[in-house]
Specification:
By secondary structure, the chain is α/β, with parallel strands linked by helices. About 40% of the residues lie in helices and about 20% in strands. The protein has three domains: about 170 residues, FAD/NAD(P)-binding domain; about 120 residues, protoporphyrinogen ix oxidase, domain 3 (Orthogonal Bundle), CATH 1.10.3110.10; about 110 residues, Protoporphyrinogen oxidase, mitochondrial, domain 2 (Polyamine Oxidase, Chain A, domain 2, Alpha-Beta Complex), CATH 3.90.660.20. It binds flavin-adenine dinucleotide. Flavin-adenine dinucleotide binds next to helix 1, strand 14, strand 18 and helix 18.
């Protein structure tokens, strides 16, 4: 028996991959809340023609992990439910930053890089020059923050306005804490090896052609379609929750036992088997896949493996407030774009606003999502803000920045506690250490989910594939 802890998208995907491989069976998925899907939560208002997403809303279609997700979507029969945003769509081309008192459109093509575009005070190509001429860090670095790397190589403006804002959008995190390896691992390695990013990439291009792992090429028609049609991002009709719902349905049809409302209290690893204490009762399984956040797994293994628990617990998470707002009037917000991000240097209580009704057809509604908090949650809102307080802040910012001052016709305030892990400096080393501990102690435990190898939907589904493959290899030994 294999148990999977957590029925978010990574736990469900792990269940699906185990099922598809046909072994080891049977499988039980244990979920502590009363629903499957984890942070993916789409609230549909079909009669009025709009959707509120409180978690993720778009998936990127490029790269090996993205192809893997598209393969999965096709395999579970949802290819015709994909809602792509093509690269020439306004939401794909237009991304904005709110800085220096106004909304600034970021360049979306080469010509934009050649001229000075606010909030920057010089053309962006100058950042490339800085990289070409900047000296490398004194001694070889093992890791550093995104901010310090980008500031060193490309200048302070890029660090303050581009990269810091981007991190607010991706992980609600602070570029001054997040590891450069989170998004720029390859760039960092190239710089450390060759003394510059551009110089390094050019040198490497001469030495060897980038190696492509043939196994990771697009295999499904959907992935090929995404490439040939040049998708920029996509969702699913009815919202992203369509995907976990479908996987959950397939698992149940195939006799995978999905139990919601169960609380795992402790995990005890025996010689050959694992004892799970669930709601005070013992359940014995052969293998365990944990897709739950690392800080929660830390609690379950604390008694038997305190050293492992300590490392798991050391991965920090942030709280995010997500405010969905809907007006019955179409096109209230005048800018045609994906939305805007607010760099932390602006010192405003929001991370950014997504223009949902600009990205997707929401009939005659204007739908916006305001993201707040993250690394600065407590600074702005204390430890336990009320929903009214958060809504008031969101509406005030929407009024001031987008000039929409009428009250919304409907809204939802979501306070998502500890929802996004922060890959701070040293994260990769810590995760390597965690995996090494598991190997050295022969624990039949696989890890997947957002705590370890990437926080996006693609990353966590990919982590489930790798986790199941690893488990299979162990079984075959
Ligand atoms: C606000 C927000 C916006 C985002 N936007 C995007 C986006 O646009 N695009 C993108 O690609 N990614 C986005 N992400 C990231 C993405 O949503 C997550 O990485 C992904 O959903 C995580 O899935 P998961 O299965 O790893 O974890 P989770 O969704 O956290 O699932 C874990 C599950 O485990 C359960 N659980 C917890 N403890 C236990 C226990 N002890 N026993 C049993 N079950 C337990 C939980 O209830 C949960 O259901 C966003 C995330 C957030 C929070």
């Amino acid at each position: 028996m294999t148990a999977i802890l957590g029925a978010g998208i990574s736990g469900l995907s792990a269940g699906y991959y185990l099922l598809r491989k046909g072994r080891p069976s049977p499988v039980v998925i244990l979920e502590t809340s009363n629903r499957i899907s984890g942070w993916i939560r789409s609230e549909r208002f079909d009669a009025e023609g709009y959707v509120f997403e409180s978690g993720p809303r778009t998936i990127r279609p490029k790269g090996p992990a993205a192809n893997n997700t598209l393969d999965l979507i096709e395999a579970v029969g949802l290819a015709d439910q994909v809602y792509p945003i093509f690269s020439n769509h306004v939401a794909a081309r237009n991304r904005m930053i709110y800085a220096k008192g106004k909304l600034n459109l970021l360049p979306s093509d080469v010509s934009g890089v050649l001229k000075t575009v606010p909030p920057f005070t010089q053309p962006l190509f100058m950042a490339g020059f800085k990289d070409l001429f900047a000296r490398r860090s004194g001694e070889r670095l093992e890791d550093e923050t995104m901010y310090s790397f980008v500031e060193r190589r490309f200048g302070r403006e890029i660090a303050d306005y581009a990269v810091s804002a981007m991190l607010c959008g991706i992980c609600a995190g602070d570029a001054k804490q997040i590891s450069v390896k989170f998004l720029m691992k390859r760039m960092f390695e190239v710089e450390q090896a060759h003394g510059g990013v551009i110089k390094g990439f050019l040198k490497e291009a001469f030495i060897k052609r980038a190696q492509k792992d043939s196994k990771l090429q697009a295999s499904s028609n959907l992935a090929k379609r995404a490439k040939s049609e040049n998708w920029s991002m996509y969702s699913l009709y009815g919202g992203l929750q369509t995907l976990p719902n479908r996987i959950g349905m397939i698992l149940k049809e195939n006799m995978v036992d999905i139990r919601t409302d169960v609380t795992c209290e402790e995990i005890v690893f025996g010689d050959k088997r694992i004892q799970l204490i669930i709601d005070g009762k013992e359940r014995v399984v052969d293998r365990l896949i944990s897709s739950i956040p690392s800080y929660k797994l830390a609690r379950h293994v604390a008694k038997q493996h305190p050293a492992l628990s300590k490392e798991l617990a050391a991965i920090p998470f942030v709280d995010v407030a997500v405010i969905n707002i809907r007006y019955k009037t179409p096109n209230l917000q005048k800018h045609k774009a994906f939305g805007f991000l607010v760099p932390p240097i602006e010192n405003l209580p929001i991370l950014g606003v997504i223009f949902d009704s600009c990205c997707f057809d929401m009939e005659d509604n204007t739908v916006l999502t305001v993201m707040m908090g993250g690394a600065w949650f407590e600074k702005w809102f204390g430890t336990s803000p009320s929903e009214e307080q958060l809504l008031a802040v969101a509406l005030r910012q929407v009024g001031e920045i987008l000039k929409i001052n009428q009250p919304p016709d409907s809204y939802k305030v979501n306070i998502l506690r500890k929802c996004i892990p922060q890959y701070v400096v040293g994260h990769q080393k810590r995760v390597d250490g965690i995996r090494q501990y598991i190997r050295e102690h022969n624990l039949p435990l696989g890890l997947c989910g957002s705590s370890y190898d990437g926080v996006g939907v693609n990353d966590v589904i990919f982590s489930a594939t790798k986790c199941v493959d690893g488990l299979m290899n162990e079984c075959d030994k």
